[in-house]
From TrEMBL:
Residues 5-92 form the Large ribosomal subunit protein bL25 L25 domain. CDD domains: Ribosomal_L25_TL5_CTC. Keywords: Ribonucleoprotein, Ribosomal protein, RNA-binding, rRNA-binding. InterPro entries: Rbsml_bL25/Gln-tRNA_synth_N, Ribosomal_bL25/Gln-tRNA_synth, Ribosomal_bL25_short, Ribosomal_L25_dom, Ribosomal_uL5_bac-type. It comes from Shewanella youngdeokensis. This is Large ribosomal subunit protein bL25. The gene is rplY.
Length: 95
């Protein structure tokens, strides 16, 4: 199964801006890989929660729709809240 997530490029970087995004029900994330520049993005929390419940979300290539371009990625790391069902940050690697 293939998954597609809509994202926007994140211009503000840091702890404060990430907290503001989380309070607005968004998830800060980053896409990185060898030979390419890292891209900071923001995703909708409800979209992430919906697809991350499937086991193959962690094993297959995902498509991130970023400003009209599709980027193939794989989940590298996911940070969750300690006791709430929240995703706090995602790391993706270029596929």
């Amino acid at each position: 199964m293939s998954y597609t997530l809509a994202a926007q490029i994140r211009t503000e970087i840091g702890k404060g801006s990430s907290r503001r995004l989380r309070h607005a029900n968004k998830v800060p994330a980053v896409i990185y890989g060898p030979g390419k520049e890292a891209i900071s993005i923001v995703l909708e929390h409800k979209d992430v929660i919906k697809v991350q419940g499937n086991d193959d979300f962690y094993l297959t290539d995902l498509t991130i729709s970023l400003d009209g371009k599709d980027v193939k990625v794989r989940v590298q790391d996911i940070q969750r809240h300690a006791f709430k069902p929240l995703v706090e940050h995602l790391d993706f690697k270029f596929a």
